[in-house]
Write a structure and sequence with these properties.
about 300 residues; 12 helices; alpha/beta
């Protein structure tokens, strides 16, 4: 009987998001595919350093060790590498004892068509085109910022995931009002619609899945979530009522009213923070791994 991935939280991650391949990426951009392939094969026994998504993936895989015989997550390597240049990736996976056995290797072709085939719940990549295509296809996806100064040896007893609200957990409907008409129009819209749940954004389904997993673990859940939003009172009420309507548990919520998110994210100790605004992510990336959630293409 085929292995049913719908029973698990499935994370698709690119090799550049899991490992530090910045040098190799420079070779590809500056010298082309042939030199890149030659380099990868020449150094296929050289272990890669962890990348920005490494700790998060270790945390998700740790869930499988908590209840014997009951796996909770699966991780799929999704890469535009071909099979011949991928041995270094698998050797590095084995070196770090990561329980990853599945891969999609497309030899330069887009990855988005294969997300549904693997029932992916979250896709992380350092390639903007792949992330944009995934968002357009209706998947939760983030363009990970590859800052490699994070501590990768600390225990992964608890996964901490932080989300922005508008255009991430919720649709960009209210965000567009703010951008096009300003703060007062935004606040008035939120006051008027305080009792009306916000439409779902690209990460709503993922948050619901994480909440479901938290409930399975009870009071000692190894997953902790946070909402870190620029909203403040009175725009907070609609958010709270929306999460209540979804039946979602959110562990920590920060309504910052435009204040910097950096300190809160550092204090929370996020393994990743998802936001649609580059201005929020650049500073935060000095303290925690971050991923930008692009807007859906207007077609």
């Amino acid at each position: 009987m085929p292995y049913d991935l719908t029973n698990y939280l499935v994370i698709g991650i690119s090799s550049r998001a899991l490992f530090d391949l910045s040098k190799e990426d420079d070779i590809y951009k500056e010298k082309g595919l042939k030199d890149y392939s030659t380099y990868q094969i020449q150094y296929e026994d050289s272990i890669l350093n962890p990348g920005a998504g490494f700790n998060l993936i270790k945390g998700f895989l740790h869930l499988n060790e908590l209840v014997p015989g009951k796996r909770k997550s699966e991780v799929i390597i999704m890469s535009r590498n071909n099979a011949d240049t991928s041995l270094r990736i698998f050797n590095s996976i084995n070196h770090y004892e990561l329980d990853i056995s599945r891969a999609a290797l497309t030899s330069g072709r887009p990855l988005a068509p294969y997300l549904k085939a693997f029932d992916v719940d979250l896709f992380l990549s350092a390639d903007e085109d792949d992330v944009e295509a995934a968002i357009d296809a209706g998947f939760a996806a983030g363009l990970i910022y590859c800052n490699h100064n994070y501590e990768h040896s600390k225990p992964q007893e608890e996964i901490r995931i932080a989300f922005d609200g508008d255009a991430v957990l919720f649709s960009d409907e209210s965000e567009m009002i703010f951008q096009e008409k300003g703060l007062e129009a935004f606040l008035e819209n939120e006051r008027k619609n305080a009792q009306k749940p916000l439409p779902e954004g690209p990460f709503a389904k993922l948050l619901k899945t994480l909440s479901f997993l938290q409930q399975q673990f009870g009071d000692n859940s190894p997953i902790r979530t946070a909402l870190v939003t620029s909203r403040n009172s009175p725009a907070h009420e609609r958010v709270i009522r929306t999460l209540r309507a979804w039946g979602v548990r959110i562990d920590e919520a920060f309504f910052l009213g435009g204040a910097s998110k950096d300190g809160v994210l550092k204090a929370f100790g996020a393994h990743i923070f998802f936001d649609d605004q580059d201005t929020h992510l650049r500073g935060a990336s000095e303290h925690v791994p971050v991923a930008r959630v692009p807007y859906r293409s207007k077609k």
